[in-house]
């Protein structure tokens, strides 16, 4: 058991690749949708933990563009679970002042789901305690392509000079323009890849890979990941010596 008292620092932005719902169900001889249902419970638990611990932005990889290729009955079940989650958690978000955001090719969502999502985002837009950012119908390559297309359009229309384009400007065209880059990316189920998630933003994110399947990833495991992060040295290309406080001339 890991206690929040062991945490000395809290990352501003944590992103999670929630993986393993299907395998969790298969291990128990259950339909895949039961794994997804159990996974929704962990979303509630981890969102609550993140807010209570002081995380500013929690980004959850809920549905990738590649997931549209899954069997239609599973996709329909996932969309139904998403809509139910949004309806059931609205009051919780309002009470705990959580602002819901979403990023991805959202127009691909079923109209009823998109309507509920838009309404929930609007209802929670004034909340300031934490941002819950759902990656839905999301692809990192799609996001980068969208940013590139919009930058090109602004160049053609004279709003920006191509010579002004740098990493900072490019970041301002991404879906996450209003957020800091994630300090930590958590992936459950043991897979060791980003799966097209936050490809630009995660350039210097610390990766935490756990073999625990998402439906078994609880508050304690979330705290464990944050504790692991604070024991790492984030050098950003520099040496350990450069990161140590300089004591020359009193600095």
Can you characterise this structure?
This protein is of the alpha/beta class. The protein has one domain: Undecaprenyl pyrophosphate synthetase (3-Layer(aba) Sandwich), CATH 3.40.1180.10. Helices cover 41% and strands 14% of the residues. The protein contains eight helices and six strands, in the order E-H-H-E-H-E-H-E-H-H-E-E-H-H. It has a six-stranded parallel sheet, with helices on both faces. The longest helix is centred in the first third of the chain and has 24 residues, at 72-95.
The overall average pLDDT, rounded, is 93
The shape, in one word, is globular
Class from secondary-structure proportions: alpha/beta
Order of strands, widest sheet: 3-4-2-1-5-6
Number of helices: 8
CATH superfamily: Decaprenyl diphosphate synthase-like
Low-confidence parts: 246-251
CATH architectural designation: 3-Layer(aba) Sandwich
How would you sum up the major sheet? Answer: 6 strands, parallel
The overall strand count is 6
| CATH topology heading | Undecaprenyl pyrophosphate synthetase
**What's the number of domains?**
1
Determine and state the CATH class: Alpha Beta
Helix content: 40-55%
The end-to-end distance, rounded to whole angstroms, is: 40 Å
Order of helices and strands: EHHEHEHEHHEEHH
Estimated share of beta-strand residues: 5-15%
Radius of gyration: 19 Å
